[in-house]
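Record filed here:
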Amino acid sequence: MKKIFYLIIFNLFFILSCSNQTTNPSTNLVDSSKNIITVKKVPIDEVVNDNTNLVKNSTFDEEIDADGDTSLTNNMWSLSTNAGNTGGNAVATIENGICKINISNGGNEIYSVQLIQQPIKLEETYVYSAQFDAKADKDTKILLKIGSGEERKWQDYTGGSGHGIAVNLTPNMQTYEIQFVMNKPTDEKARFEFQLGKESTREIYLDNIKLKKIGRNNMEIVNNIPRKIVELPAKNIHINQLGYNPNDKKIVIINSTSELSTFNIVNADNAETVFTSNLTKKGFDNASGDNIYYGDFSEFKNTGNYYINVPNLDNSYSFKINENIYYDLKLSLEKMLYFQRASIDIEEKYASKWARKSGYTEKARVLNEDKYIDVSGGWFDAGDYGRYVVPAATTIGHLLLAYEFFPEKFNDNTNIPESGNGIADILDESRYALEWMLKMQREDGAVYHKVTTANFVGMIMPDKNDKELILSPISATATADFAAITAMASRYFKFDKEFSDKLLNASIKSWNWLENNPNVPGFKNPNGIVTGEYGDDFDLDERYWAAVELYATTKDSKYHDYIKSIFNKINNHISFGWADMGGFASTTYLLLNNDLQDNNILNSIKNEFIKHSDELINISENEGYNITLKENEYIWGSNMKVMTDAMLLLITNDLINNNPKYIDTAKFNLDYLLGLNALDKSFISGFGKRPMINPHHRPSVADNIAEPIPGMVSGGPNSGFQDDAIINNLSRNTPPARCYVDLDGSYSTNEITTYWNSPAIFVANYFIK
C-alpha cells in the first residue's frame, strides 16, 4: 500500500459565543455562510491557529483495509463488520477519489458496520472540529464517534449518545461539521469512527475527512461528573475579557519586550480584520514588572465578537461589544449574596447545582455567660462561616448607595425566594441581613461584634458544622455601624412602615448607648476566639456615619451638632471600607437638602472628594495597567480598593464635578477586575476567559462541584505573603501586581467577601446602559 497522503488546506475560523449551541443530534443545522451543515458547535475560549489535519488518507488516495483489522495502528482507514458478533456486512471501494461503502447487511447495532482510523492523539481541554463530505443513495442516518478504544472502555469524546453524534445524509453530497471538547485526559490512541450499521441495505459515500484542533475550552463537567477545571494560559495581550459597551473607553494593554507598532481588532466569527490602530509605548511598570504598550480602540463601536491581534504575539482572548455586556455580571454579583445566606436551605430552584442544606440555625452562647440567643440568619461574611456586624453594615451601605443612585437598574427577578414580591431584590437581600443584625443588638442598644465558632471550621459544608456558636463581646464600631445602617435603611423601607420604624428605633437605641459610652476601647479578639477580628481602634468615623444617617432620617439638629463637633477630628471623609466609613457619611451628607447642610462641612467634603478623585486619575495615568492602585497598595483585599476607588470617582462625577476622566478611570478599574491586568486574570468567578476558579470559600471547596458559584469577587494581589499557598508558590521577588495565586488555600489573595462584591455591584450598575 502506498504511504502517501495530502494535507488538505482549510482555514477554519469559528470562535463561538459562550452559550452552548449544541443541536439536537437528530437535527442538522445549515450554516449557509460557509455551505456547511453544522451538526454540533461548542464554545471556544481560546482560538488555536493549527491547520494540521489529524486524519490521514483524508481524500482516500490510499487503499482501505477491507478485512476489518481494527487492531492496526498505522493511521489507515479500516472497514469493520460484525463487531461483537452483531452481524453486518459491507464492502468498501474507492471510486474517483471517494470512498464508497456498499452495505448489504446493516446488522443489529449501529457499530455492526464501521469505518475506523486509529490512533489519533486528542489533547485534554482542546476543541476539535471534524468535517467530512458525505451522501447516501437515500436519506439515512449515520453516527460519527471520536472516542477511545477498549482500554478506556469505548468512551465517546464527541459528547453524543455513547456511540457518537447522529448525522442525517441525503442523496446530495454535502459538508458536515461536528465540534467537540476533549474533556477527558489526553488520549494518544483515540479512534475516528463512522458508525454505519443497523439500517437496511444502502450505499454511503465519504470524502475530504478532516479533524483539526481549533481552540481550547475550560469546560469542566462531563456527564454531570465534576472534574478539576483546567485554567487557560495567560496571554500578553490584555483586555476586559467580558467586553465593552459600544461607547466605553476601550483600551488594550500589551506586555512585550519587543518593539510593537500596531494592533488589529479581528472579527472572531469570520477572522476579518475590522480595525487597525497604533500602539503607544508606556514603558516599564514597576508594579507588574511589565513593559507596557497600550492601544485605544474607543472609536470602534460595532457590536460583535472580537479578539485583538498583534503581529508575532498570540491573539488575545475573545471579547464582545454590545449594549448589555454587564447585565449578566451585575445579576451574578448580586446573586452571590443569596448564596452567602446562613440558616436557610439554598434551594435548587434558586441555586441550580449549587443548592445546599441549611446550617447555623442553633442559638449562640454569649461568651463567658450561660446565656443563649437566637442570632440565625444573615450572611456568611466571607470564605468562612463567621457572621460579623461591621462587614455586613459595609455591604448593605454599598447596596443602598447603589439603589440610591440607580434605582431603575434594580429589578425583582434575580431568582431569589423574594423575587416577584414587587420589591427590588437588592432591598430584599439587604433586609435578610438587617433582620439578622437586629438580633445582634443587646437590650441596652450595644451590638455584639460577631457570632462565630471559637476557631475557623474546616473546609466543610455549613450543615456539617458541629462546633458551638459563640457571640463575641459588643464593640463601639459594631454599634455605630449598626446605628448608621439601620437609620439609613429605614429610609429605603418606608414602604413597610412597621419595618422602617423598627429599624429607626433600633438605631436610636444604639446611638443612645454610643452617647453614654464616648470612649470605648477598640475591639480585640477575646481569649479563645481566633476567627476574623475586624479590629479598629478609631471609631469616630463610624460615629460620624451614624450621626449623618440619623440626621438624614430624623432631621433632628442634635445629630448635626455632633457632626460639626467631630468633623475635623476625622482625617478621612472619603473611604467606603469596613475600617474607614467616612465616605458613606459624606455621600449621604452630599445628598441632603441644602437647608440641612452646613456650608463649611459641605465645601470641605466636596474639596476632599475632588482632590482625591484627581489624585486617582493621576495614579491611573502613571500606572502600567491604568488603575488606581499604587505600587505599595497591593494589600489584602486590594480589589476592594479598586472598586471603592471607582465608587468615589463616580460619586464625585455625579454629585460634585462632572469630569469624563472620572468615569473613564472608574471603568479602567472595572476592566482590571475582568482581565485587563498583568495576570490576564478575571478576578470574578464565572466571568471572562480566565476567571478565578479556586476561591478560599468553604462551600466551593466542599460541594464537589468543579466551578465555583459565579459572581464572586476575589481579594486580588497582595504583596504581604500572608498565607502558605502564596509563600509556597511565588518568589518573594514577585512584583506586587503579580502576588496572587488562584488556590483555595490562599486566604490572603483568593478569599471572597460580601463587601468586596458590594462595591462591584455599585460600579457594574453604573455602566449598565
Notes: The CA atoms of residues 35 and 179 lie 16 Å apart. The longest strand covers residues 202-216. The two ends are 65 Å apart (CA to CA).
